[in-house]
Design goal:
The chain is α/β, with parallel strands linked by helices. Helices cover 34% and strands 27% of the residues. Strands 19-18-17-16-12-15-14-13-20 form a 9-stranded mixed sheet, covered by helices on one side. A 6-stranded parallel sheet has the order 8-7-6-9-10-11, sandwiched between helices. Helix 10 packs antiparallel against helix 14. Bound molecules: cytidine-5'-triphosphate (CTP). Residues 8-11, 16-17, 20, 46, 92-93, 95, 114-115, 118-121 line the site of cytidine-5'-triphosphate (CTP).
Length: 437
């Protein structure tokens, strides 16, 4: 019996796939189809595959062409599979010519001509052509964000509202809408990404939602809980998505870390300590506004938002400008702390202590691609690494698009967490339980 093997993602299975599978089958008597696992796709840079692994497997099964379906999970697996199943022919489409010649050592390699005019990427792009406008003056952040849209099907950044166009990249300068008038931008887009000053967020979000536009907004969404709640209610009323932008939440390593904790790997969590600092020479330093939401994220996501009390210790550089803030939280069965600074430097790590072991995320933990689960018995220690591309922005955009187009809530940050972050900002501004040093 001549065994043939082929691999693919098979997102929104189309006739290009079917033609390939038919010809692959005709190369032998028995066809094995490898369907790529979601994680493996991410490692390969295909981050916005829309269908789940199960849906994709079902679609391949429904063609009736595969005698066996396997899941491709790791780099180098093809060699293992060829040996394990005694494969005679490996085949893929001509878009891969030369790429798999290294398999010739193990079996015959055949590149079949790719069907012109169709691909999963095109189907994904046609399904959701959502336009986005970006709002903000910070050139570094805007340039970084704008660069990411090419990785995400279904959303296209088409304009900017800024007072700082000279400092923006050439790509931004070439967008079709350039304006310093927010309303002009809003009229022409389906969604906005807001990275303006936090005190401007409320009005800007409200305007957008009232016009039926979806909003992705840098954190903190507002400086008080009531306003934030009002905006979430408005979003619901208008059928729009309002999503807080904290890219760390969308990093694979960080979200896996949360799952490990929830599944009890370190026992009961007793403390969460997060530090985020930088040294900036700005006159205006607002450590808590700039770093706070990020540092608060693991605390509220792991321990919840129902703390018993919290206490701020702050150093103000000048009126209202904190260059150092520490917050201590007391929970019924746990404690937590954040340390944020824009004028003091400390190790930017995240440590989560539990009754069985602890999780250590080295600095800078907010760009997490790696963490360790450590135990008293060191032989049980485990290290985890997950590739992080684009600092998580592209994953955040994928989640935003998915929330909008599929109507299902793909947000990784619960609204309760967003509200708790706003409340933390509000109490700080009102000096509730705040000691100055
Ligand atoms: N394929 C093909 N003709 C097409 C599209 C895909 O022959 N028009 C082949 C590929 O060469 C590969 C297999 O089908 O051998 C699975 O491809 P996959 O990457 O899943 O599909 P694409 O449509 O190429 O996906 P994408 O647009 O995400 O790259």
């Amino acid at each position: 019996m001549r065994k043939v093997i082929t691999y693919g993602t098979y997102d929104f299975l189309h006739y290009g796939h079917i033609r390939l599978l038919e010809r692959a089958k005709a190369l032998g008597d028995y066809l094995i189809v490898g369907v790529t696992a979601d994680d493996f796709d991410k490692v390969r840079g295909k981050i916005n595959v829309q269908q789940t692994l199960v849906e994709r497997i079902e679609a391949v099964k429904a063609t009736g062409l595969a005698d066996k379906i396997i899941v491709e999970e790791y780099e180098g697996q093809k060699i293992d599979d060829i040996k394990r199943y005694g494969v005679d022919v490996f085949t893929v489409g001509s878009d891969w010519v030369g790429k798999f010649d290294y398999l010739k050592e193990y079996c015959e390699v055949v590149y079949l001509e790719r069907t012109e005019g169709i691909s999963s990427s095109e189907i994904r792009a046609q399904k959701r052509a959502l336009s986005m406008g970006i709002v903000g003056d910070d050139a570094i952040s805007m340039n970084k964000f704008q660069k990411e849209d090419i990785y995400v099907n279904g959303i296209e950044i088409i304009g900017i509202c800024t007072n700082n166009i000279e400092k923006m990249s050439d790509k931004i300068k070439n967008l079709s809408i350039i304006t310093d008038d927010y309303k002009t931008l809003l009229d022409k887009v389906d969604s906005v990404y807001i990275y303006s000053k936090p005190e401007e967020h409320y009005e800007q979000i409200k305007m957008a939602l009232n016009q039926g536009k979806h909003v992705l907004c840098e954190s903190p969404i507002t400086m008080n809980k009531k306003q934030c709640k009002e905006l979430f209610d408005l979003a619901e009323e208008k059928g729009c998505i309002l999503m807080e932008a904290i890219r760390t939440a969308y990093a694979t390593a960080y979200s896996r870390l949360l799952l490990l904790i929830k599944s009890g790997r370190i026992g009961n969590v007793v403390s969460v300590d997060a530090t985020c600092t930088s040294l900036r020479n700005n006159e205006v330093t607002t450590s808590l506004v700039n770093w706070g939401p990020l540092a608060l994220l693991p605390i509220y996501q792991i321990l919840g938002c129902n703390y018993k009390s919290k206490r701020y210790i702050t150093h103000f550089k000048s009126e209202g400008n904190d260059d150092f803030t520490k917050i201590d939280f007391l929970y019924p069965n746990a404690t937590a702390s954040i340390k944020v600074a824009e004028g003091v430097k400390a190790e930017g790590e995240l440590v989560i202590a539990g009754t069985k072991g602890y999780i250590y995320v080295p600095a800078p933990w907010w760009k997490t691609d790696y963490f360790e689960v450590r135990y008293e018995n060191q032989t049980l220690n485990r290290r985890y690494f997950y590739q992080l591309d684009g600092e998580g922005i592209r994953y955040e955009l994928v989640a935003f698009v998915r929330s909008i187009t599929e109507g299902k809530n793909a947000k990784y940050i619960d609204d309760k967490v967003t509200l708790a972050i706003c409340k933390t900002m509000e109490d700080f501004e009102n000096h509730v339980n705040l000691s100055e040093i």
